[in-house]
Amino acid sequence: MKKKLALFLAALMAMASLAGCGGTTAPPSSSATATQPSSTAATGDLTAEITWWSFPTFDDKTGTYDQKLIDAFNEKYPNITVKLEMIDFTSGPEKITTAIQGNTAPDVLFDAPGRIVDYGKSGVLANLNDLFTDEMKNDVGNPNIVEACGDGENYWMYPLSVAPFVMAYNKTLLEKEGLLDMLNLEGDRTWTTDEFTALNEALAAKGHTNGLVFCMDQGGDQGTRALIANLYSSSITNDSLTEYTINDANGVKAMQYVMDQVAAGNLGNGASYNGGGAIEQFVAGTVSSALLWSPGLDLNNKEALAANGIEAVAVPLPSDNGKPNATEYLVNGFCVFDNGDADKIAASKLFVEFVCDDAEWGPKNVVATNCFPARQSYGELYPGNENMAFYGSLSQYYGVYYNTIDGFASMRPAWFSNVQAALTGDKTAEQAMNDFVQDANKAIEAA
Amino acid sequence: MQQNKTVTKTGKRRRLGIRGRETLVSYLFMLPALLFFVAFVVGPILSGLYTSFFNYTARHNNFIGLGNYIELFQSEPFLKSLRNTVLLVIGVVPIIVLFSIFVSTIIYQKNPIIRSIFRGIFYLPVVTGTVAIVVVWKWIYDPLNGILNWALQAMGAIDQNIMWLGDKKYALLAIIVVLFTTSVGQPIILYVAALGNVDQSHIEAAQIDGATSWQVFRHIKWPAIMPTTLYVVVITTINSFQCFSLIQLLTGGGPNYNSSTIMYLVYEYAFKQSRFGYANAMGVILAIIIGVFSIIQFKFFGDKVEY
Prior knowledge:
A: 12 strands
């Protein structure tokens, strides 16, 4: 009897492995367009309590700035209480997914279009169509940024700031080794794949480990996609975002180039690093370059770099013709969850408008992200800053913004696992790119 | 005679009534825990089983029958994860059991202070947060700055740095080592307690009769600690099957799913790709495998257990 009882308990424990996988919450139906704010919302005397989840994007990263922002908002809207909760980039996305499934999503989220538009398509957001006035669209100017905020039918994200993803070298090291002249530090600092190869070979010959081709997981994976897309002027997707195209001849050539450079020791094998880990190695001075960098990373790592005696210099990703037309870029913005309370939605929209459009706080908030304003009317926010002028000059090379493509989340594991397979010799460059495209296109169909 | 029978019957009824009331009270005591168990274990199990037959994602929730299960067995990541899961269990569980018995046998008769020190050392990884442990091990395994490569190179064992977590030859092994260090603490504590409870007079009698140390262990201690062994084997097996955080933090399942396990894949599909139905199908498969392993273990060890 005891044995049977013990066996039964063991079976239950085994079944308990399923316990975390449950959840029958049906995908919420979109009520965004049906939900109307109450009359008080229109008058501006709205009383509501909203929750704001924020990734550490503003300059202090601890939420202190975010709280100051709330205090400023409350001076204008004293009846709206904003509860701030900071989430981190590692566990934040899963936390949001869990909250959506558990109907405990926040009211406002500060994030990027990749996830936000996906939430919008899933029907859990309130659309922000009313905020996208003609004045706003004209002020933003760049149609790519406006399009990145929606899915063609609705706008789901209200943009605050924009910045390109680039790469960076250890300028101090290059100076020390007498190799600084191998970088183009004029104007938009563009350079060719051959020049990139020559510099990496020169550094490797002097015993340095170069940029890690990180692919442990999806952290920072846009960096390696942009690298491979730019090296020989390929593209991750087609312009209409209906299919992935990086398995074309140039994409395969670029993957082969990366494999060869890693094998030759001119680039670092980053199979056990993600983007964050690779950047840490760069900041620590262990490797000479980082294949993912941005104005935000510049700002975040300023103190650590200084402490390590390193001056970083940002450059665009190399390309065969010196025009990195597949440059990826970040768009920071806000979305509003439809939690079934019209007053909360209205209050959230007021908050979002305040953060992005307030005459005083709007520009201040953009600077706090160390990015460029989505709105052109904010003008030059970094006068005399040569580095920011460089970042700003790259907007001409912004590629197709594919982060809003259907099945984006499922594409990412397909990317890093195939890059891993290529770097570890499991697959040829062609197999890796073909398998990636096949899996990623399947993800579009399944979405 | 008739009267006696009635009395007997009445008495029996009275005894049954008392037993019934005792049973009822017992269930009432269990009720709060039972409610939690049903709500947070049984409910999600049934829910997980049910949704495994659906294309349940952030946008869809339509019935597809065995579609998820068919896709699973055509999926390279799942098949690799299945293989790794089994390898992890087979690789870790016997080593944990043998090592725990070995250490416990050595330390259980030492003086209490020494015994406590060893128990503390081995139990420390169990009570230390997984993230803290992983940070240390990541540093040990780091291909550029890691102490393991440094030590092996200093000893002349390797010429070039090894990418322990990024090389398919070593990634799973590296995880097994970490899993081993975090799993031996509890079995050692249990075995030390179990060995301490073995009747000393049996051991002394055997020794007087000329039994060797091995014979004493094989014929006296081993049968006496069999219930503990059964518990350790089953629990360690289940924990190994459910190994997730180490993999998530150390390798992310890579390279190319060569260190991924089913549990990790469940997480990846459920929380990164929002394919909840597909992830639940994996959970069902994992539960079945754990169940089968547990039954085999009970059959193998259960007959020899005397409670």
